[in-house]
Design a protein that fits this description.
Elements (H helix, E strand, L loop, with lengths): L33 E4 L6 E4 L2 H11 L4 E10 L2 H9 L10 E10 L6 E8 L8 H15 L4 E5 L6 H13 L9 H13 L6 H8 L5 H14 L22
Parallel strand pairs: 5-6
Antiparallel strand pairs: 1-2, 3-4, 4-5
């Protein structure tokens, strides 16, 4: 997770704590509504379905993603100019939203790239209204050098979501920047450890300098930074064995 967020993106929309989603969390047609507090920026993101909740969790732990802005506004530039030239206010109903606009930091160049994501249930992808909306979104993005894709519930396994929620709990009250150096060292120790048994036992065996709470916090930081990779085929629980992806 490198790179630094600019104050404004390429479309003139603020980033970080200055960004305000166009729509707040509300009861929607797709179920669960609420807010996910983003680990990397400390700001809340409205979610309007369980699929969006799973997406926010995955984006938070993706090492390329610096920021995921939900309910990102976009509008027809020509229509806006017509209203502007006529001295008339642009109607809010003419502003559409993307589900998510991701700010990515490409690891091998450290350059920023913007990527739009539409979240839809797989059963709606062939709906004519959804198809037209996706065509409009993809065209708007292509004109601005932004990539676009649609993701469904099939892209967010249930086990992965619950593992991300467990990791987020580990990071509660953690000082991510302050613990960065120790977390990197700790990740190396965990990777080299030959200890077996529960996650509790393994994390404590990796280093006896820190308390168990600190071990969990540093483990969470190490996963957030990509120094450790969880194998999401298995549950991440204190009393269960730890399964890591080996590179």
């Amino acid at each position: 997770m490198g790179g630094k967020l600019p104050e404004w993106d390429i479309c003139g929309i603020p980033t970080g704590r200055r960004y305000r989603p166009w729509h707040s969390a509300r009861v929607g047609k797709r179920g669960l509504s609420g807010n996910w507090v983003r680990i990397k920026t400390g700001t809340g993101s409205p979610q309007h379905s369980l699929i969006e909740a799973k997406a926010l969790a995955k984006f938070d732990f993706h090492t390329w993603v610096l920021e995921a802005r939900s309910q990102y506004p976009f509008w027809d530039a020509e229509k806006y100019l017509r209203y502007y030239r006529a001295g008339r206010p642009f109607p809010k109903t003419s502003v559409a939203t993307f589900d998510f606009m991701l700010t990515l930091c490409i690891p091998w160049t450290q350059e920023l790239h913007y990527h739009c994501v539409s979240i839809k249930p797989s059963g709606q992808l062939d709906d004519a209204k959804v198809v037209r909306r996706h065509e409009r979104e993809a065209k708007w993005c292509a004109e601005r050098g932004i990539t676009w894709e649609c993701l469904t519930e099939l892209d967010f396994p249930e086990r992965e979501y619950w593992n991300h929620k467990v990791l987020k709990r580990f990071l509660r009250d953690a000082g991510i920047t302050r613990q960065m150096a120790d977390a990197r060292e700790y990740a190396e120790r965990v990777s080299r450890s030959s200890a077996s048994g529960s996650l509790n036992h393994l994390l404590k065996c990796a280093n006896r300098r820190w308390t168990l709470l600190e071990c969990y916090q540093m483990f969470g930081v190490a996963v957030l930074m990509g120094w450790l990779r969880i194998d999401h085929r298995f549950p991440l629980e204190e009393g269960e064995p730890l399964f890591l992806e080996r590179t």
